[in-house]
Amino acid sequence: MRLTRRRVATAAATVGIGGIAGCLGGDAGETAGASTDGATARSSFFVFGDLTAQVAGDAATTELLVPVGQHGHGWEPGPRIREDVRGADLFVHGMPGFQPWVDAITRDLAADGAGVTTVDASDGVDLLAVDSGRGHEREETHDGHDDEEPHDHGAGADPHFWMDPLRVMDAVENVRRGLVAVDGGNAAAYAENADALRTRLDGLHDRIASTVAGGSTRTVLVAGHNAHRYLADRYGLDVVSLTDASPDDRPTARDVERARRLVDERGLQYVCADPLESQRAAEQLVAETDAEAVLPLTAMPGLTDEWDADDWGYVDVMERVNLPTLRRVLDA
To answer: Which residue ranges have biased composition labelled Basic and acidic residues (predicted)?
Structure first.
């Protein structure tokens, strides 16, 4: 079941697979209380919502709570969203600290003893520690220390694991177990759908790896926050970002100057920017250097109107937005 416009509303999230009213023990498929009418699952973030919809298929109802066009990191829900989460059987979200409003909602649910099963999509994923990861030297003050401190984001871990399709496979398993926990009667359907999604993810991984292998460069300049370290880690890329891991960080004049030098030193033709974030710094770099154009490279902080209209999910965006950009940037 895809996340169509009719299913998109507004957002929430928590950790591991656990019921707010009590933790799940053993394999999720052995948990009692499965729905015979099909479960309702709600998600706090576009990528998590799409994975949930893909694994659920026609066996459960899924809903993404963040509105189309909104940035999933910074969006704040109204009171109605808390009630929407309370009405769900399953709530899929990211790590603590990733979306602070989610942490507040799940704390309230726990305090009230609400019977909502929660799944942290990142549970068990090999996460990278938060790091500036800008891929080039940082300015130092006269005493030799960095003049900027890394922004702590996602409780000390980089939350953007979905930029690596192989890590996403672990999240798919988390979602499958969560759905089975609340709807064991459809366990076979969830397993089949999860297997199909893993096959698509494996194919996506192969296409990205092939593109990187065929490229003449490994440098990718992103005029935005540092959301692509997992992509760099998996495929051996040198992804240079203007700011650190938090989308709240804004590039300074010094950040732009470092990027300008990088374009000149490495002869970069393109500057990348997320379609859901400001294009200002990217356009400035193109205007002030020999770079030719701004290309879209997205960490999918939300869902654009165009992606929604085309019914695109995570794999679609990776294949139709990010992969073509990588081919051009890497000269593959």
So the answer is: 133-155
